[in-house]
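As a warm-up, study this chain.
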Amino acid sequence: MTTDPYATLGLTKSATAEDIKKAYRKLVRTSHPDLHVDDAGAEARFKAIAAAYDLLKDPVTRARFDAGEIDAAGMERPQRQYYRDYAEAPGNPYQQGRGYGAQGDPADIFAEILRQHARGGTDGFDPRGFSAAGQDLRYTLSVPFLDAARGGDMRITLPEGGNIAVKIPQGAQDGQTLRLRGKGAAGHGKGTAGDALITLAVQPHPVFRREGDDILLTLPITIDEAVLGAKVSAPTIAGPVSVTIPKGASSGRILRLRGRGVAKPGGQPAGDQLIELRIVAPPVIDDDLCDFLTEWRKTNAHDPRKDMLKEAAT
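Now compare it with the structure written out below.
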C-alpha cells in the first residue's frame, strides 16, 4: 500500500483543497468496511484513506509534508540545525537591542564578539559563557481514536533517537497541540531547554465517529428485530451496553444514549452516543421466509416511497 497520501486519494500535489475534499468523500462512500465485509484489507484501506485526508486537509501539515518536514504518518523527519538557529534564539545578547540590527548576519555578530574579546572590549561579554535558550521542537503524534476519547499514555519516538512520554488528555481533539515543558532542544550555557510541541492526529475508527463530544455509531439490526423489537448489545467507547430496539423500527432511526459520549473537562456532563439503526437482510433467504413474505405482501401492501414521489413532483 502506498505511503504517499496524494496517491492514496488518487491525486497529485497540484490538487486543490476542494479536490482533496471531493476525493475523500467519494472514497469514504465506496470504501467503508461495512460495504466490503468479505474483504480482509478493506479496513486497512479505509484507515489509510482517512489518515491521508487528515494530513492533507490541514494547509499547515500539508505544507510541512510537501516541504519534507514530516512523513506520510505525520512524524517529524530529522532536522538539520545550524549556528544561525542559535544566533537568533531568545536570550542571545547580540540580537536586536544590543547594538546589532535585526538584519545583521550572525557570522558578523560572532566575528565582532571575538574581536572585542581579543582587544579587551568593555561590554563584559565572555564568549565562553554564552547562553541561549533551546529551540522548541514540533512533532506530530498519531493517536488511536479510543485513546483520544478516553485518555491514555503514549510515547513519541524522536528522529535523533530516544522517546518522550506523552499523556493524552481525556477528550483530546484532532489537531490539538500539547506543550511539554523542557522537552525541546537543549539550551546553551545556562540557557533553559526549549519545549516539545506535540500536535495530535486522531486516527479514524472502524466503528465509532465523533462530532464534538458526541459519539456516532451505525448499528446493524435484523428484519425480525426491526419488526418485533428486541434488546441487543451495542458497543460504546466504554464497552458494550444493552439497547432496546423499539417495535417497528426503520433504518435511519436514531437512538440516544445519554452520557455515553466523550467526557468534558471540569466534571461537566459527558456527550451522548447516537445510534443510527440499519436493517440488514439475512445472508441466506430460505424458502420459508420467501413464502411467508410473498403471502404477507398480498394482503399488506405498503409503499414507503409514496409521499416521496409526490413531493418530488411538486
